Amino acid sequence: MNGRPHVTLEDVATVASVSLATASRVLNGTTNVREDLRERVLSAAADLAYAPNVHAQALAGATRRTVGVVCHDVDDPSFAAVARGVMRVADEHGFLVMLASTFHDPEKEIAYVSELRAQRASTIVLIGSGFEDRRWEKALSAELDAYRRGGGRVAAVSRHHGVKVDTVQPENRSGAKDLAAAMLGLGHRRFAVLAGPRELTTSLDRLTGFREGLAEGGVELSEKDVFETEFTRDGGYFAATELLSSGHSATCVFAVSDVMAIGALSALREAGRSVPDDVSLAGFDDISVTRDVNPSLTTVALPLARLGEQAMELALNGNSGNRAKVRRIAGEVVLRDSTSRPRRRR
């Protein structure tokens, strides 16, 4: 069936036993489709190696020297830094880069991969956290498997559980664990965490690592100490506001990303709290602005551009065999002015 020269949307609908409209909604990334119907359409499309873009079909196999970069949020400096690394290597090899932002919507990620496959992009690089979602894993894997069967090359940055692609993985868990040890070393014993949604593997890994590091030092991080929010600057601001409203007694706050920490810093200032005199604050990633904010931000530094470079290199080397390659990149705790030993309070 994969050898059919001109597979149509009607063929997909027939194999999936759904209407033409339903097949179209699924393949266009529309979310209001019943789950069992969506899975049938995606499975049929993968089996038929269907390319929904008519223009791409007319190219009759002429792959373009383009790289499709799919990230969660292009406004986030950490994603921008990783994308810059991808672009640097792509430029050296004469590839044009197309950038798409999903705004943390897993359905958009699947839709963009489908569109890039239709456009016959030669390479796809996924930047950003995977999702703890079996349905998403299955749907994305179906798109990527069909894309690779057609000769496409794929790599990802960060952990994508259940999606078998070559991956560059920052050591989020161990980095957060090291940060916890460093904060304990400063004398802190009361902590709070501003976490992103736990279905994001990056947020979950950093929260888990920080909790493990505290536990090794004899400090328990309970659920009352975790303030879950959006993985954005505004998310960090609102989580810090919630923390203040709760009357939490933390002397040290860990935001699982630098952009969240910057939002938290604004909220703390507006509430009249001094950092680090009243409360210490730490982030994760080491985006460039962390050195310029006042106070400069303690963080776990990752070589962000290098993550992108290595992902692009993995993609260019191709995906051979059934076992995905994994390159692990360690972070380093960098202590700056936003953290200090806890002050005695009256």
From TrEMBL:
SMART domains noted in UniProt: HTH_LACI
Family annotation (Pfam families): LacI (PF00356), Peripla_BP_3 (PF13377)
Superkingdom in the source lineage: Bacteria
Keywords: DNA-binding, Transcription, Transcription regulation
Gene3D superfamilies, per database record: 3.40.50.2300, lambda repressor-like DNA-binding domains (1.10.260.40)
Domain annotation HTH lacI-type: ranges: 7-61
Name of this protein: LacI family transcriptional regulator
